[in-house]
TrEMBL record:
<dbReference type="InterPro" id="IPR022637">
    <property type="entry name" value="DNA_polIII_beta_cen"/>
</dbReference>
<feature type="domain" description="DNA polymerase III beta sliding clamp central">
    <location>
        <begin position="136"/>
        <end position="250"/>
    </location>
</feature>
<keyword id="KW-0235">DNA replication</keyword>
<dbReference type="GO" id="GO:0003887">
    <property type="term" value="F:DNA-directed DNA polymerase activity"/>
</dbReference>
<dbReference type="InterPro" id="IPR046938">
    <property type="entry name" value="DNA_clamp_sf"/>
</dbReference>
<keyword id="KW-0963">Cytoplasm</keyword>
<dbReference type="GO" id="GO:0006271">
    <property type="term" value="P:DNA strand elongation involved in DNA replication"/>
</dbReference>
<dbReference type="Pfam" id="PF02768">
    <property type="entry name" value="DNA_pol3_beta_3"/>
</dbReference>
<comment type="subunit">
    <text>Forms a ring-shaped head-to-tail homodimer around DNA.</text>
</comment>
<feature type="domain" description="DNA polymerase III beta sliding clamp N-terminal">
    <location>
        <begin position="1"/>
        <end position="126"/>
    </location>
</feature>
<comment type="similarity">
    <text>Belongs to the beta sliding clamp family.</text>
</comment>
<dbReference type="GO" id="GO:0005737">
    <property type="term" value="C:cytoplasm"/>
</dbReference>
<dbReference type="GO" id="GO:0003677">
    <property type="term" value="F:DNA binding"/>
</dbReference>
<dbReference type="Pfam" id="PF00712">
    <property type="entry name" value="DNA_pol3_beta"/>
</dbReference>
<keyword id="KW-0238">DNA-binding</keyword>
<dbReference type="Pfam" id="PF02767">
    <property type="entry name" value="DNA_pol3_beta_2"/>
</dbReference>
<dbReference type="InterPro" id="IPR022634">
    <property type="entry name" value="DNA_polIII_beta_N"/>
</dbReference>
Length: 379
C-alpha cells in the first residue's frame, strides 16, 4: 500500500476518527487506527468497541490531492501515528507499507518507520442497512444532544441512567435523560414519519462525542437503528454507537402537572446571577444556593454562603412573579447546566413546594423542552 496526500486533509480526518480510540481497551488492536486504501480513496477507522468512527477521503476530490500508488490496508498505533503526522515538516506526506507490515511515513527530509498490524485482525463494523433511515437537521440534533446529555448519570452503579432514552413514534422524537437528581426532556418533529417505532438508549458519552464532531458545515444527519447499534451518517463520516440494554425508568410521572409558584426570567440574566452566587457556594461543603421568592413585595433574592469565605446576596431581575411565597435551595451547578440549554430565551420556572422538584421551560413552545431539578434539603 502506498499513497501521498495533503497532510492537513489527512490530519483532520485522523483527528475525527481518533475520538473513538482509547488506550484503555481490552482488545489490543483497538488501540490502533485502521487505514484502508482502495481505488475510490482512503477509509480511516477507529473504535473502542462502544464507539466506532469511519471516515472517508475520496480520491475524486481534488482538494484532497490523494495520489494512490498501490491499494491495501494496515493498522497503525494510533497515538504514535497521530503525533508523527502532526509534526511532519511539509504540507504533503507519503505513507508506504512494506514487508511484515513495516510502515514508512515520509515528508520532506523526515522519515519514520513504525510497526503496523494485520488489518484482517481488526473487528468488522456492523452492517446497518439504510432501509428505515431517518433524516434530521444537524443543528437540531446538536441542540437536542447538548440539552439532554447534561442530565445523564456518571454513576456506573445504574448503567441505564448513563444514557439518553430516545423514543421515536411516527414523526415525533423524544429524548430524555436523568441522573435521579435532575431530568432533561426534549422533543422534536421529524421531517418525515418513521416507518417503525423505536425505543433505544444511547450512551451519553457517545452523543457527546457525536456533538463535538458536528461542525457548522454539516447540514443533515442520517440515523439508522439496528438491534444493538445506532449509526449516524454525515458527510464522509459514519459514527457507530452501541446501545445500552435494559428498560429505562418511566420518567413522565416525575414531571409535575401543576405548580403553586411561578416565575419568569430571562435565561442569560438568571444564569449570570447563579454563577455569581455559586462562587461562594463552591467553597462550601454542600454547594447549595438559596432562592427566596416574596410575592407580595414582588422580590426574588438569591443567597450563596461559605462559612470559611463569606456570603453573597443578590436581588434578581424577573419578568413575572406569581403564586405563593417560597424559599427553596438547590445545587447551582444543576441550575447552570439547565439554563445554558435555553440560550437567549425567556424561561418559566414552576415550583410546587420547597422540597418538591421544580421545572424550567421556555416561555414559547413549552411542550418541546423541559428541565427538572430536585431541590436540596437544608434543614
Amino acid at each position: 500500500m502506498k499513497f501521498t496526500i495533503t497532510r492537513s486533509t489527512f490530519l483532520k480526518t485522523l483527528n475525527d476518527v481518533s475520538r473513538a480510540i482509547s488506550t484503555k481497551t481490552t482488545i489490543p488492536i483497538l488501540t490502533g487506527l485502521k487505514i484502508v486504501l482502495n481505488d475510490s480513496g482512503l477509509i480511516l477507522t477507529g473504535s473502542d468497541a462502544d464507539i466506532s468512527i469511519e471516515s472517508r477521503i475520496n480520491a475524486t476530490d481534488e482538494n484532497n490531492d490523494l495520489q494512490i500508488g498501490s491499494t491495501g490496508e494496515i493498522v497503525l498505533p494510533a497515538r504514535f501515528f497521530s503525533e508523527i503526522v502532526k509534526r511532519l515538516p511539509e504540507s504533503t506526506m507519503t505513507l508506504e507499507v512494506k514487508d511484515n507490515f513495516q510502515t514508512v511515513i515520509t515528508s520532506g527530509a523526515s522519515e519514520f518507520t513504525i510497526n503496523g498490524l494485520d488489518a484482517n485482525n481488526y473487528p468488522r463494523l456492523p452492517e446497518i442497512t439504510a432501509d428505515a433511515a431517518l433524516s434530521v437537521s444537524a443543528d437540531v440534533l446538536r441542540q437536542l444532544i447538548n440539552q439532554t446529555v447534561i442530565a445523564v448519570s456518571n454513576q456506573e452503579s445504574r448503567p441505564i441512567l448513563t444514557g439518553v432514552h430516545l423514543t421515536i413514534t411516527g414523526d415525533q422524537l423524544v429524548a430524555v435523560a436523568t441522573d435521579s437528581h435532575r431530568l432533561a426532556q426534549r422533543s422534536l418533529t421529524l421531517p418525515t414519519a418513521s416507518a417503525s417505532d423505536y425505543d433505544i438508549i444511547i450512551p451519553g458519552k457517545s452523543l457527546t462525542e457525536l456533538s463535538r464532531m458536528l461542525s457548522d458545515d454539516v447540514e443533515k444527519i442520517e440515523i439508522r437503528i439496528a438491534e444493538n447499534q445506532v449509526l449516524f451518517v454525515f458527510g464522509q463520516t459514519a459514527f457507530y454507537s452501541r446501545l445500552l440494554e435494559g428498560n429505562y425508568p418511566d420518567t413522565s410521572r416525575l414531571i409535575p402537572t401543576s405548580s403553586n409558584t411561578q416565575a419568569e426570567f430571562d435565561a442569560p440574566a438568571l444564569l449570570a446571577s447563579i454563577q455569581r452566587a455559586s462562587l461562594l457556594s463552591h467553597e462550601s461543603s454542600n454547594n447549595v444556593v438559596r432562592l427566596v421568592l416574596n410575592i407580595a413585595d414582588q422580590k426574588a433574592t438569591i443567597y450563596g454562603n461559605s462559612p470559611d469565605v463569606g456570603n453573597v446576596e443578590e436581588v434578581l431581575s424577573f419578568n413575572k412573579l406569581s403564586g405563593e411565597d417560597l424559599e427553596i435551595s438547590f445545587n447551582p451547578d444543576y441550575m447552570k447546566d439547565a439554563l445554558q440549554g435555553f440560550g437567549q430565551t425567556a424561561i418559566e420556572v414552576d415550583f410546587t413546594a420547597p422540597l418538591r422538584p421544580f421545572t424550567l421551560v421556555p416561555t414559547e413552545d413549552k411542550e418541546r423542552f423541559i428541565q427538572l431539578i430536585t431541590p436540596v434539603r437544608t434543614f
